[in-house]
Amino acid sequence: MKVEEFDALIVGGGLSGLRVAIELVDTMNVAIISKVYPLRSHSGAAQGGINAALGNTEAGKNDSPKTHAYDTVYGSDYLADQDAVMVLAKEAPKIVIELESMGAPFSRLDSGLIAQRPFGGAGFPRTCYAGDRTGHALLHTVYEQCIRKGVKFFDEFFLVDLIKVGNCIAGLVALDIASGELVVFRSESVVLATGGFGRIYKRSTNAIINTGDGLGAAFRAGVPMQDCEFVQFHPTTLFGTNILITEGARGEGGYLFNKNKERFMNKVAPKAMELAPRDIVARAIDTEILEGRGFDDSYVHLDLTHLGKEKIMERLPGIRDISMYFAGVDPIEKPIPVQPGQHYSMGGIASKYKGDFGETPLDGLYSIGETSCISVHGANRLGGNSLLETIVFGRYVGKAIFKKESRRKLKSFEIKNAEEAALKAIEKTFTSWNKNKGKKPADIRMAMKTTMDKNVGVFREEARLHQTTIDLQNVQKDFKSMHIETDDRKFNFGFVRALELRNMVDIAEVTAFAALWRKESRGAHFRTDYPTRNDKEFQVHSLVTKKNGELIMETKPVTLGIFEVKERAY
Ligand SMILES: Cc1cc2nc3c(=O)[nH]c(=O)nc-3n(C[C@H](O)[C@H](O)[C@H](O)COP(=O)(O)OP(=O)(O)OC[C@H]3O[C@@H](n4cnc5c(N)ncnc54)[C@H](O)[C@@H]3O)c2cc1C
User: Fold this and answer.
1) So what CATH class is 412-557?
2) Which of 43, 154, 220 maximizes ligand 1 atoms within 8 Å of its Cβ, making it the mutation to test the pocket?
3) Thinking of the domain 2-230+344-403, which architecture would CATH place it in?
4) Which ranges in the chain are annotated with CATH 1.20.58.100?
5) Residue 486 has what pLDDT?
6) CA of 342 to the centre of ligand 1 (A)
7) Which residue is catalytic, options 278, 283, 395, 464?
8) Among 407, 429, 446, 508, which is least packed by CB within 10 angstroms?
9) Ligand 1, closest atom to CA 158?
10) Taking the CA atoms of the chain, what radius of gyration do you get in angstroms?
11) How far apart are CA 303 and CA 244, in angstroms?
């Protein structure tokens, strides 16, 4: 058995994982494991920007962290924990300046200050950006700092399962993708920073690697999944491939039209129009399409032509490239065909705000970034708040790990026994696949995605959600006796895809189960059979676990008290 040992171990080389490492590397022996080379993490795909109430522009000069927090809570449809949101908004200006001093190449105003653009659901232009490739710029900047400080990386190592002793984390088992070997990583502090799980859907802006691996491992270890029914569908993904067309395109002044040339947003958000929050714009677009006012019953137009060549070339060059390469449309001359697609996972691993920041109910296990639910996004995330969360909370999780006083000192024989048991269980799972019969992973994956797209999308209702829970039980059965082409583990991506599917199926089941349970409409979760918000019964966080093979629903209260609860109107 190959064993590596660290004071703290971070799974994930995206912005969240990197920022935790920076906080710890000076004082602790820390390593990052990542299934892809860190610069290929999905953080690098972020386009539009990162929010901070800097008030750099004339239009934004009255902005403040409190207004930022208010917009976030209002946008969340009052499901975000208000104390956590206040911290996020207050820390934002500091953290953006920190990124600037690390060397992040932000776009600039003529004054030399960091430029800020309007974004959906925001009262002021608050989103700081680097053209339309903000994530790429930030990921490189933070990675450079990790290299400078000597963070140790295990690239192309895949987290398979966690190891625990009683209710304490003891480490994890990872697959070294190149050698095919299973390696035990021993640590009493493990951080899951494995990103979102958008690939449980077919129509998604997410990278192929966003398969919810951290969530799957935590779920199997008994940690609750929080608010997973809240899936963000981005209104504008490119028709055909569902590549993201940033909200920044509407922030810069883009319009949405149906096939009758109507700017239909005036029907649902007459003030905010195209810059209403994503849940509202996505529903408006799908309504146009469902009621026959879309093009080819499939998409609407995002028109940037009136912005002019210069502005498009300067502020949205990546969007122009994507539209030309993948849809054959130059947005300087023609509108872009767009439709809603899965984009972000508001829910995630239940993690604490109070006490040891980011810690899950499993002692010593933390989660951060899109994987986690510390609940700042509630039922609907505002654009630009996710990059922010990775950096602000990455720092906080690092501090919490450093400060944790009661290092547990598990007994070495307990750790060894747990490690051996974990390896044995994993081998058992692997050998159950090595047969020359059963369905192929690709077919099982497609069955899962098809039912998720069809029944757990922008609009939901009882019978269809119920159907998906049954479909997914069948998917689980097929998965258990799956056929894989070869059991050679050396650089076997078929094997890695199978491991990812194991996590996706679990999280798809949680998502559908929670969506069926939540009999109200709030934020991104819209039930046509329960079209209004029901604060009396459902202003609570959902918590799903599995006991004896059955999914169990529990709830916990939402932290309110800073902003008065109101109806949302834009
Ligand atoms: C196209 C797109 C555009 C976006 N634009 C914006 C934007 O403009 N502004 C904004 O605020 N937000 C945006 N978002 C959201 C935001 O980018 C993400 O939520 C955020 O970057 C997630 O960061 P993360 O560190 O949590 O995860 P990621 O960046 O996804 O990193 C996950 C890491 O975990 C590793 N990993 C995963 N599974 C395993 C495993 N089994 N074993 C080992 N390692 C594993 C991966 O290798 C990777 O390094 C966008 C998202 C998308 C998809």
Assistant:
1) mainly alpha
2) 43
3) 3-Layer(bba) Sandwich (3.50)
4) 412-557
5) 81
6) 14
7) 278
8) 407
9) 42
10) 23
11) 15
